[in-house]
Amino acid sequence: MAEWINTVLQGVLLGGLYALFAAGLSLSFGVMRMINIAHGDMIVFAGYAAVAVVALLHLSPALAIVVVVPALALLGYAAQRFVFNRTLGDDVLRPLLLTFGLSIVIQNGLLQVFSADVRGLDIGALATANLDLGHNIAFGVLPLLVMLTAVATIAALQWVFRHTRAGRSFRATSDDPATASLMGVDRHHVYALAMAIASAVVALAGVFLVMRTTISPSDGPARLLYSFEAVIIGGLGSLWGTLAGGVLLGVAQAIGAKLNPGWGVLFGHLAFLLVLTLRPQGLFPKTRDR
Amino acid sequence: MSLLEVHALTAGYGDFQALYCIDFRVEEGEAVAIIGANGAGKTTFLRTLAGQLPATGGHLRFDGQDTGGWSGHRIAAAGVAMAPEGRRLFPSLSVEENLLMGAYTRRPGPWTLDRVYALFPVLREFRERNGTELSGGQQQMVAVGRALMANPRLLLCDEISLGLAPVVVRDIYRTLPQIRTEGISLLLVEQDVGQALKVSDRVVCFQEGRIALEGAPAELTREQISRAYFGD
Amino acid sequence: MTHDPIPLSESRVARGNRVSLVAAVVALALVIVAASMPWWAERAQLHLITEFLYVLALAQMWNLLAGYGGMLSVGQQAFIGIGAYSLVVFGLHGGLNVFAVVPLAGLIGAVAAAATAPVVFRLSGAQFAVGTWVVAEVFRIVVSNLPFVSGGSGVSVARTVSGMDIEWRDSMTLWVALALGAGAILAVYALMRSRWGLALVAVRDSERASQSLGIDGRRIKWLVYVASAAGCAMAGALIFITKLRVSPDAAFSIDWSTTMFFVVVVGGIGTLEGPLVGAVVYFLLREWLSELGSIYLIVLGTLTMTVMLVAPGGLWGLFTRRVPLQLFPVQRRVRLVDRG
Questions:
Q1: Cα(C230)–Cα(C111) distance, integer angstroms
Q2: A215, B46, B167, B208: which has the highest count of C-beta atoms within 10 A?
C-alpha cells in the first residue's frame, strides 16, 4: 500500500517537472498559435548550456540558472523576431516544418559539440536528499523543489497575463492580431516577447532536468511529446490546466512504470489518448479557437 | 496644414482595386462623414488610413508626417484610433480590459477610464463582464470608448450604426459632441445618411472607389446625395 | 465596361498540353529503363535505385497527406513500422512469400489507420501533427514489449529470403519498388485529376466553404489518411526486405518522417513533381555528405529551414515561378474554344 502511495507521490512530483516543460509550450501556443517542434530540444539545449556554464565558469548549479535563463530568453526573442515570425500566417505547415528543421539542427549540433555521452549536473547531496513522512512514505527534496518552482512559475505567468499591460497585449493579440495593431500593439514584438518568456521557462525546466537526471542530445523529442500531452490533457489556454495535465501525466507514467518497467512512457501516451477520446477539450479548457 | 491629407490614393485587395485616386483631407477639429453604398470603398479607405491595408499608390500625410508605408501600430501611436467595423472587441478580455487595451500606446491626454465611464455610464456596471455578454449598442460604446482611451488626434468610426436599433444609435451619436470638445477630429463612415448629415461639418460620398460628391450638409440636396450614392 | 458573357458551350476545361505529353513519354522510358536494370546494372546500382524508388513512394504518400490533404503528420512511421512487422509476422512466422506480404501489409496499414483515425482526427493543424507522433510512439513501445515479435532487440528476417536466388531477389525487390514508386505517383495523379482530387484541394483550402458546396470533408480526409497509411505500410514491408533486420527503433523511427519532410519540402510540397526533385537532391546530398555524420543532418535541417523561410514552394516552386510548367498536369484551366 505504501508502495503505491509512494508511486503516486513520485508521479505527482514528476508532474511538476512536466508542468515546467509544458508551461513554455502552453504560452507560445496560446499567444502565437504555434507549436514549436524544437521545444523539447530547447529544453535539452538549456540543460547542456547549464552543464557547460558549470564546467567552464566553475559556477554552482544554482548560479548557472541565473546565467542560462536570461541567455535563453534573449535567444528566444531573437529567434522569434527574426526567424519564426516570418512564417506566421494562415499556413500552419510553415512554422511546423521550420521548427522541425530546427529540431534536427539542434540535436545534431549538440551531438557534434558534446558527443553522444550522457551528461549530468552534480548537485551534491540534493540529488539524493529525501523527506521522510513516516509509514514508509518518502519523496525526494529535489522533485519537491521542482514542483514548487513549477507552481510559482505558473502563478507568476498567470499574474503577468491577468494584471500587466504586456499580458493584456498577449491575450488581445492571441484573440485578434489585426485589431490589436489598431491599438498600437506591434505584433512582431509581442510574439517575440512571448517567446522570450517561454524560453526563460524552458531554460529553467532544462536546468532542473539536468539536475534530476542525465541528458543526451536526442532527448528533445520525448520532452516535446510530454509537454504537448500535458497541455492537451490540461486544456488549451489554461496554465493551471497545464499543471494539472502535467501531474496527471506524471502519475500515469509512474503507475505504468510500477506495473512494468517498459510501460512508463506508454501509460502516459495512453492517458493522453484517453483524454483526447473522451474529453478532447481537456480538463480545464479556456481558449476559443479562432 | 490639414491634420490628414490624402492625395491620389489607390488601394485594393490583390487583383481587385477598391480605391481609385482619392483626394481627401480632414482639418483639425473637423467632423467628416463618409457615406456610400456597400462596396463603395468606405471601409477600405479607413483601413488604409489606419495602416491595416497597404496603399498601392498616392500619398498619405498625417500630422505633417508621411505615413504611407507605416504599419498599423505605428500609425496608432501617432494618434489615429479606430472603432472598427463590427466592433471587434477582444473576446478573452473583460470590458474594462478592452478599454485598457485602448490605452496601450500610453498617449497623454484627457481620456481616462473614469471619463469613458462618465461618457457611457452603463459600461461601469459591466466592467468585469466579458464583452460578448453585452448588447450590440453597449459593445459599440466599448469600441468607441476603447478608441478614446488612446487619446487620439483623429478618431475613425466605421459603421457605428450597423445592426443597432435607431434609439441606440441616437444615444451613441449624442455623445459625439462631448468627444469633439477636446479637439478630437472625427471621421465617420456611416450607412445611416440622416445621422451622418446631422453630426458632420462636411460630407463625402464614395461611389465605386471614387469620390462622387463633397460638401457641407446644408449645401447638399436630397437629389444630389441620392445621385452620388447610387450612381447614374 | 462590361463584356458579353461567353456561353459555356464555347469553353472547355483542359488539363494537359504538349509539355506534359513529352514528360509522359520520358517518364515511361525511365520506367522501362529502370525495370530493365536487373539485366545490365551492378548490384550496388540496383540497390541505390531501389532505395530511391521507395523513398520516392514514401515522399509521395506524405505529400498526398500534407501537401494535397493539408494534414501534416509527423507519425507516418507508425505505418512503415506496421509494414515492417507484417513482414515479421506473416513472412517470418507465417511463412508467406515476402513479396506477397507487401500488399498484405498495405491492407493492415489501412486497417490500423482506420482504427487510429477517430482519435487523431479530434486534433487539427499543429496538434494533429504531434498527435500522430504520439500514436507512432505508442505503436513503437507496444511492439517493443511484444515477445512474439522479439520485442526491443529486433529480429532478423533473413530467413524469409534464404531460399531465394539472390539475383531473383534483387530483381523482384527492384520491380516491387518500381511498382510502389511509380504506382504512388500514378495513384496520386489519378486521384488529383478526379473529382475526389478537386474536392480534396477544396477541403484543404477551406473546409467551411467546401462544406457549403456539399463536400464531405471528413470522409475525404479519412480516405486520404487511410490511403497514405497503406502506401507507407507497403513501402515499410519492402524496405525491411532489403534491410533484413527489423527492430522497433528502426521500424518506427522518426527518421523516416525527417526524410519524408526533407524530400517533399525541399522538392516542393503540394506538387507531384516536387518529391521527385527532392528525392534527387536528397540522394545527391547523401552521396556527398554522409561521411560527415551529424554535419550532414545539420545541413538537411538547415536546408529545410531555409526553404520554409525563403521559398516555401521548394525547388520546383522556384522553377515554376519562372517557367510555368506542369509535367503531371493536375490543374484545370478553362480554355476558350476558338470562335474563328
A1: 8
A2: A215
Would you kindly state where each structural domain of chain B is located, as residue ranges?
Answer: 4-230
Residue A206 cell numbers, joined: 532544462
**C-alpha distance from A169 to closest chain B C-alpha (Å):** 7
Number of domains observed in the structure of chain A? 1
Which site among B101, B139, B148, B154 would you substitute to test the A interface, given the most A Cβ atoms closer than 10 Å to its Cβ?
A: B101
A252, A270 contact by CB (below 8 A): yes
Domain that holds residue A29: 21-218
pLDDT digit string (tens) for chain B, length 232 residues: 788 999 988 888 877 888 888 898 999 999 999 998 888 888 899 999 998 888 888 889 998 888 888 889 999 999 999 999 888 999 999 999 999 999 999 999 999 999 999 999 999 999 999 988 899 899 999 999 999 999 999 999 999 888 888 888 888 888 888 888 888 999 999 888 888 888 899 999 988 888 888 888 888 888 888 888 887 6
* pLDDT higher than threshold 60 for residue A122: yes
Q: Subunits touching B (CB < 8 Å, at least 3 pairs)?
A: A
- Residue B151, Ramachandran bin (φ over 0: left; ψ between -120 and 50: alpha; else beta): left
Chain A residues near residue C261 by CB distance under 8 angstroms: 97, 100-101
Domain spanning B4-230: CATH 3.40.50.300: yes
Q: Which of A75, A39, A97 is nearest to C301 (CA)?
A: A97
Do residues A167 and A161 make contact, with C-beta atoms less than 8 angstroms apart? yes
Q: What is the pTM of this model?
A: 0.89
Cα–Cα dist C127/C76, whole Å: 15
